[in-house]
Amino acid sequence: MNNHIDEETINKIRNNVDIVDVISSYIQLTGAGKNYFGVCPFHDDHKPSMSVSKEKQIYKCFSCGAGGNVFTFVQDYENISFIEAVKLLADKAGIPLAINSKITKKEKYQDYLDMYELANKLYMNNLNTSLGKEAREYLKNRDISPKTIKDFEFGLSLDNKDDLVKLLNKKGFSTDKIEQYGLCSQNTYGSVDLFRQRIIVPLYDLKGNVIGFSGRIYKDNNENKYLNTRQTVLFKKGELLYNYHRAKDIARKKNQIIIVEGYMDVVRLYESDIKNVVATMGTAVTKEQISLIKKMAKEIVLCFDGDGAGEKATLVATDELLKVGIEPKIIRLEDNLDPDEYIRKNGRQKYLQKLEHPLNVMEFKLNYFKKDKNLSSTLDIAKYVNEVIEELNKMDDPILKEITIQKVSEEVGLEKEVIKDQLIALEQNKTINEVVKKEEKKQNKYEKAEQYLLYHMVNNNKVMKQYLKNTIYLPTLKYRELARACKQYFEEYGSINIADLMSYLRDQDTLKTLLEINSLNLKEEYTKEEIDDYFKIIQDYNYKEEIKRLKEELNKTTDLDKKISISNQILQINKKSKGDE
Length: 581
Fold this sequence. Notes:
Elements: H1 7-15, H2 19-24, E1 30-32, E2 35-38, E3 50-53, E4 58-61, E5 67-68, H3 70-78, H4 82-93, H5 110-127, H6 133-141, H7 146-151, E6 155-157, H8 163-170, H9 175-180, E7 184-187, E8 190-193, E9 198-204, E10 210-216, E11 226-228, H10 244-254, E12 256-260, H11 263-271, E13 277-279, H12 287-296, E14 299-302, H13 308-323, E15 329-330, H14 339-346, H15 348-356, H16 361-370, H17 378-392, H18 398-412, H19 416-440, H20 445-459, H21 461-470, H22 477-493, H23 498-504, H24 508-518, H25 528-556, H26 560-577
Parallel strand pairs: 12-13, 12-14, 14-15
Antiparallel strand pairs: 1-2, 2-3, 3-4, 4-5, 6-9, 7-8, 9-10, 10-11
């Protein structure tokens, strides 16, 4: 439970905002019956899959499984903490929120943020002094305007050994802490600033706090071109997207986000008035980054470097996005250029033309599969066609399949029917495997009874009271944990309100189980016989498990009296299960 805002206040805030109004401010909703429907912002949704209940004050997506109450939606959409979502909605409802002073801190590691803020100010100041003249000239020659330098807070580290360490020491930070947070190194001769004689670009967290730096050389020397902050408690590349805090709102308005690799690519596009752009900072696209990307816009455009490494990174990122139902669009740049180089060489309009006519996934993959193949070679043709068939087998769009088959047939001089026959054979095998997997995952009647009982427990107080009287043991741990939490909530508040229950459950696993249960497509009406049957099925499972345990105990013991006692217990349980008692 929340340690800073009491449940009563949380419930008051939730009751003073309407979930339909709040979600409508983010996505378009259309009323249908007693619910509202909209395109889910948490996956690549092409038809309204999200249902919003005004009566229950909850939402759920029937496609990707996202769901919760108004706090959950705002938290996930804005990518903020639960406390921040509560604060945002409290402001919307006009409810003053008195909270623990600890919450007003930006982060747990306030000293880290203070340290990086001071470092950033030092670097920015250095760039604007006479000592920054050469660095400013370098940026000017790279067509980076003073406004962009200011917007992105570019700075400069001087060629002095420990300017930053001295400044931070004066401000009360220990050298050990400065090293721990990645701003210096220590040796037998003392401490040395990590960044020296480099143009500094600050790297931000999702809220816009500086948590790292990238330093680029601007003079000819033998050092590595780039030097970045190493991974720290806050700076974890795989969980961040460069420029996210600036781009997220623009991307949502345009419903398009461009993904590039490097921060200089972001700067160049921004300089070109293309501001709905973020960078992966050279990492392979991670699950955490995909989670951020899919919340920003429906249209995802990948524009990685034009070289072989960028092409490979595009393929990997495309496959990762496809796994979560997002089909990106793709821009490939000629002459091995990255976006920064391409725009500087060819101009903004040429890049905009690329942006207006991106490749779809299949076009990109066909080009990729043809790479380094000689299509006059029978062996290479066979490899190419087999790779295409594997890809077609993953696709659901019959029209795109037909177009692709026609194109490949003409390309390699192979009859369409040959390609189709191979695809059918592969699809049949896929269908068989899917049926097998479905059978393997088929729910047993006991788990189904647990789920159905829980569904009615969280949606009806009468069923909840019946559960409390029966005190039945649910076999599955996650359902047992949810039942325990519901019991605790009911005993504290006297009734179940599912929207408030979602706020009450601070354990993420239990909340996830509740969302799973609430996503069941069940009628809210029920009969007493149905509920009694669920209890009977679960109790039957408990009897069988107890008999199984006792039989194992019976087989292990050699004591005659104990055998008789255990046999009597088994007999009594059998009588109970048959209703003889």
